[in-house]
Design a protein that fits this description.
Elements lengths: L3 H17 L17 H20 L9 H19 L16 H16 L3
Helix pairs in contact: 1-2, 1-4, 2-3, 3-4
Length: 120
């Protein structure tokens, strides 16, 4: 798997954090791609691929999903990656959709829409 799609994911994450996070985000939230840990780059590429395949197998009808539905899909795919890479993650890392802060839900929806816009 190429990691390049992960860069689109990460760029959308950073843009979303800058747009939706209240106040000044933690530095780790906006770490540039080249400085992002390998496991996060791999995870970003994996989630991008999952979203792209979801868009493809639905024949593009994901455009009819709500922003919440899109964001929930990204969040759930990301949680699976957390479990894959972190043996005993903090509860906040694997929080369910309704437990996520608004800024993170909006950012996850932005990521889905960025992948749609990328022609996935």
């Amino acid at each position: 798997m190429t990691l390049e799609p992960g860069r689109i994911f990460r760029d959308a994450w950073i843009a979303g954090v800058k747009k939706h996070f209240p106040g000044e985000p933690k530095a780790s939230y906006v770490t540039p791609w080249d400085d992002t840990p390998e496991w996060e780059r791999s995870s970003a590429a994996s989630v991008y691929t999952q979203v792209a395949e979801f868009i493809e197998v639905s024949a593009g009808n994901t455009s009819k999903l709500t922003r919440d539905q899109k964001g929930r899909f990204v969040a759930l795919c990301w949680i699976a990656q957390i479990y894959k890479h972190i043996p005993d993650p903090k509860p906040a890392y694997v929080a369910d959709w309704q437990e996520l802060p608004d800024w993170q839900r909006e950012t996850d929806a932005d990521i889905f829409e960025a992948i749609e816009a990328a022609g996935a």
